Design the sequence.
């Protein structure tokens, strides 16, 4: 069973980083100026403060693909006494790729909340008297509110006014709100249903 | 896992409701509701429409005397006070934001906001200066000379918040306080109201159906059919 925080991380990661967009996200980060992999990871984590941090391995694998496909190129290799670092820049083809990506609306997919729905449906259909669906819904409501609260409390320091991270947190909060509204509807429906439940498998 | 019962009484509570019941005609609105709110605490009262949220707030404010049970505000049993004494208690120590603002129609916004100070014998110029400062905090610095009918619903609501906060209340009771505000204004107004607890150590009760507001509370008290269905600590 996922803990709510894990569920949330999984949710937000799915929402922000479907595999297909990793290429474009790296290109967009590189379009801010030449950078090495570590710079890109830090910039990504700052842009999307509530998403799962980008693993280094993912960054270097993606950069390799970008160079292979002519979307980015190596401008220099620095070593400066420390580990060797390769600096990358975006090519015109890479910029064009980002423009095309942005020109297409993101699919309005309902994604990431499957666990929430699955658990509610399982709770409803199995009808465990020790653990009724209404208890699941009520507990989930509190988990969501707590997560919403922690988003609002997030990092009151330096980047609190940063528009990008504020919008990212707002996005997360509004999605949690959508889940909460669904949970409230579910609670009302559970309350008003006939008493001969639980529903069996169908 | 997420809930724990809260103590229903205790010394030093800002607000204590004990087994409060009330019905309109024959329709029960509150059934044996008990609730304690401590200084420095923010409590969200939530629940579906008609669950008794607003009635609870009116009882807490002494605007409604319940048919059964008791309400204590800042250690004073409200049933032991006459209407005037309750009004004085509210004016001095309690900020109230009701739905739709409830501003006095033929007074300017500035005077509406200054009203709690003026009623306490405050000097006119100083009270108006304080009102202007309060209007700045809710982003209405240019509307001080307007009368309520010239305001949008959101502006009236912000003015009501300014009025509720002008006395630095020990208890703030608010009923859907940001319901007519856009997202940015709602966040600003909410932070102002939360500062009553977080900065000044007062108690705040927010009646709301808005999850984004409820999530700012320390504790959620969820009503259903006039009863406390669940209490949950959120932080």
Sequence:
């Amino acid at each position: 069973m996922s803990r709510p925080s894990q569920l949330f991380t999984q949710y937000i990661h799915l929402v922000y980083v479907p595999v297909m967009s990793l290429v474009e996200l790296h290109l967009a980060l590189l379009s801010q100026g030449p950078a090495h992999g570590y710079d890109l990871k830090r910039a990504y984590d700052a842009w999307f403060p509530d998403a799962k941090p980008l693993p280094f391995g993912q960054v270097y694998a993606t950069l390799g693909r970008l160079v292979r496909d002519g979307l980015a190129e190596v401008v220099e290799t620095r070593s400066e006494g420390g580990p060797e670092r390769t600096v990358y820049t975006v090519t015109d083809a890479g910029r064009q790729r980002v423009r095309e990506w942005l020109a297409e609306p993101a699919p309005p997919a309902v994604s990431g909340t499957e666990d929430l729905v699955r658990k509610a449906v399982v709770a409803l259909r199995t009808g465990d008297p020790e653990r009724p669906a209404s208890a699941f819904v009520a507990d989930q409501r509190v988990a969501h509110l707590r997560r919403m609260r922690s988003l609002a409390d997030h990092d009151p320091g330096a980047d609190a006014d940063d528009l990008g991270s504020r919008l990212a947190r707002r996005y997360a909060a509004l999605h949690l709100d959508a889940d909460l509204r669904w949970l409230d509807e579910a609670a009302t429906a559970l309350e008003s249903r006939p008493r001969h439940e639980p529903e069996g498998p169908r | 896992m997420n809930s724990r019962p809260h103590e229903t009484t205790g010394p030093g509570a800002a607000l204590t409701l004990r087994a409060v019941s009330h019905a309109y005609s024959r329709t029960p609105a509150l059934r044996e509701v008990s609730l304690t709110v401590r200084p420095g605490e923010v409590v969200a009262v939530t629940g579906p429409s008609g669950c008794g949220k607003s009635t609870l707030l009116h009882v807490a404010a002494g605007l409604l005397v319940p048919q059964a049970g008791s309400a204590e505000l800042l250690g004073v049993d409200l049933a032991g006070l006459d209407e005037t004494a309750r009004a004085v208690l509210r004016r001095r120590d309690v900020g109230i934001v009701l739905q739709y603002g409830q501003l006095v129609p033929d007074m300017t916004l500035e005077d509406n906001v200054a009203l709690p100070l003026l009623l306490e014998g405050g000097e006119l110029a100083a009270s108006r200066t304080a009102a202007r400062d309060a209007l700045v905090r809710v982003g209405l610095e240019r509307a001080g000379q307007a009368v309520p009918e010239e305001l949008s619903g959101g502006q009236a609501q912000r003015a009501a918040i300014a009025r509720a906060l002008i006395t630095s209340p020990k208890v703030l009771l608010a009923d859907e306080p940001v319901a007519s505000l856009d997202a940015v204004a709602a966040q600003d107004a909410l932070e102002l109201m939360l500062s009553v607890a977080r900065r000044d150590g007062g108690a705040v009760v927010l009646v709301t159906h808005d999850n984004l507001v409820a999530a700012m509370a320390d504790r959620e008290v969820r009503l259903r059919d006039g009863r406390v269905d669940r209490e949950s600590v959120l932080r």
